[in-house]
Amino acid sequence: MTKQILIGGGLAFAAAVQPGPLQAYLLSRVAAIGWRRTLPAAFSPLLSDGPIALLALLVLGRLSPGAQNVLRAAGGALLLFLAARAFRQWRRKEDLVPRRGDRTPRTLFEAALVNLLNPNPYLGWALILGPAVMTAWRESPGQGAAVVIAFYSVMVFMLALSILAFGSASLLGPRFQRALLFLSVLILVALGAYQLFLAARFFA
User: Fold this and answer.
1) DSSP 96
2) Contact 130, 57 (CB under 8 A)
3) Integer Cα distance of 148 and 7 in angstroms
4) pLDDT score at 171
5) What pLDDT sits at residue 100?
6) Angle between helices 141-167 and 130-139 (to 10 degrees)
7) What is the pLDDT of residue 92?
């Protein structure tokens, strides 16, 4: 069970600390209405990811074990690519706070729509989280559920922390943000290597 919690939580942490459409939405709403009224938007992935997860698991459930491990290997490669991109960003010392856009969603449901139209959850569920859940589920339904619960618990917590950080510039300084980004690089490399190891072991 600990392994499943570490996998789910690690994936969520790495995803949440890197700038993306949802983080840009959070920043724009904090600037517009304050962190207290924006805080419920941290729960938006719970609304948006349900259909994505269901679709991914239904498709994965119809694939052969060999095809699922091909997807697992692709997910491992994707994690290593994301790790390399995050490392380049860390090395260049880029501003880790996403820029605000002109259009800003105003409700929790619109925040969920932002995430629903973001390709990252689809890639994550199809190539990374979905295969991890399927593997854990074969061992026991409780272990499969542990991956999902750990992922969304950490995701909501990190998004809430981001909202608080955006609302108080002194809460998380640039050095601490860069440390989080570097930690996400290490997690992505470890998880990517683990995914590739499992796929290689299946085909060996």
Assistant:
1) -
2) yes
3) 10
4) 55
5) 47
6) 140
7) 79
Average pLDDT per run of 10 along the chain, which is 204 residues long?
Answer: 87 81 76 80 90 85 82 85 83 58 57 77 85 89 93 94 76 68 84 87 81
Q: Name the token pair of 140.
A: 């026991």
Cβ–Cβ < 8 Å for 128, 79 = yes
- Please tell me the distance from the alpha carbon of residue 160 to that of residue 54, in angstroms, as a whole number: 25
What is the reported pLDDT for 150? 95
Angle ∠(9,125,120) on CA atoms, nearest 5: 90
Name every residue whose Cβ is closer than 8 Å to that of residue 119 and which is 6 or more positions away in sequence: none
How open is the CA angle 118-44-54, to the nearest 5 degrees? Answer: 65
**What is residue 107's predicted lDDT score, i.e. its pLDDT?**
58
pTM: 0.74
Q: Retrieve residue 128's tokens.
A: 């990374």
Residue type, 92: R
Residue with tokens 């052969």: 64
DSSP state string for 38-93 = HGGGGGHHHHHHHHHHHHHHHHHHTS-HHHHHHHHHHHHHHHHHHHHHHHHHHHHT
Question: Counting every residue, how long is the chain?
Answer: 204
